[in-house]
Specification:
The structure is a homodimer.
Chain A: H1 11-28, H2 38-44, H3 49-55, H4 59-77, H5 87-107, H6 117-140, H7 145-168, H8 175-190
The structure holds a DNA duplex (30 and 30 nucleotides).
Amino acid sequence: MPISDCEVRDPRIRRTRQLLQGALKQLMDQKPFDEISVQDITEAATVNRATFYDHYNDKFALLDALVAGGFHKLLHERNVIYDGTCPTAARAIVLATCDYFVESRSSHSECERQGAFEPLMDAAIAAAIRRVLIEGMKKSGVAPEEVVNISATAASWTVCGAVKEWFSQADRLPAEELVPLVLRLILPSLQPELTQAEPLLHG
Amino acid sequence: MPISDCEVRDPRIRRTRQLLQGALKQLMDQKPFDEISVQDITEAATVNRATFYDHYNDKFALLDALVAGGFHKLLHERNVIYDGTCPTAARAIVLATCDYFVESRSSHSECERQGAFEPLMDAAIAAAIRRVLIEGMKKSGVAPEEVVNISATAASWTVCGAVKEWFSQADRLPAEELVPLVLRLILPSLQPELTQAEPLLHG
DNA sequence: AGTAGAAAACGACATGTGTTTTCTAAGTTA
DNA sequence: TAACTTAGAAAACACATGTCGTTTTCTACT
């Protein structure tokens, strides 16, 4: 049964997970995710196959951890700290998402034929964005928690969906031009205090 | 090699796929998706296991077809035809999404422990919503195609994400109260013509 | 420094996967 | 209706998956 990733003291655990994630990362540069077996991963990681299952339920869980960790690290490197209001941070988040898509999908050999790969990547990225947004929105405390959660979730999915669509387009705009478009889409989510104020819709 | 689902003449093919989808649907009322094997499905469907692979690459593809088909049918039953502007249709889409989550997740025995199940469901639902939105927005032709695609994708993900979060909450609001909240979130996506007009953001 | 408790390695096992080949039965076209 | 065409059944194959005990190794704490 896998143990939570945060606050792992034992260096062996950190080491093993590092090896597994590194192995998956490396293998994904060579072949698509659904052609990679757990065996391949554990061999490349020089770890016993059974050990894999002490840490992750399946290779999807490993992918999830890899993407979430990588994206979160990317945000951290850029000092992205969302404070609940500032559009600069929102802008940085969108740009980071663009970069992450470009980086991690162009390398991951060719287009994935099918399977559960893309949805999982997307969900992991959205979850990472969501965490950052919720953290920031809670600090500014402009709305009740349920509304914050819904708003942050919606915003994270909006960013992820928009960037995904942008990335899928043959001759896509420069990322800088996508940003204001996306920012406008998520603005209402990031300002939940206005939500109940304006009677924008009728019937 | 699977054949496209639309425009299938041969009744044998329709029958087999119907059986497979029905079997999966039925099995998911009994146990979680990741405990269901292709064998289980084909046995319940009285179809040979090899035949399964003539139609779907794996059980994830079958799930995708099931969800996409089911949700699209739900929208159609309610005569949801998005015309590109009308909030009534948007409202109906949100409500339908709520209902679909409630119906299909509460029955699917317990919470799924892990795996790629939820992301796939979500992606399939979002894709179905996206199709409806794009169809409608293209008719009204208020924006260039790339912008329509990005907007529709973002909106569909927003709806799906918000409803998912709403559904995950312990004591959730009534769906009717969620609707205006979500509508406000997706309004900018549904009105892409305003996108370049207002200088809402600076810095 | 020594020890209790943990995590890792290992081999083995039952089951599931995806594909291939051959054969039959059913649908489609003329 | 007959000839053509193709879906599906059945069985077998190599390989992957997930799980179990057991043994070994290492960490963390006294």
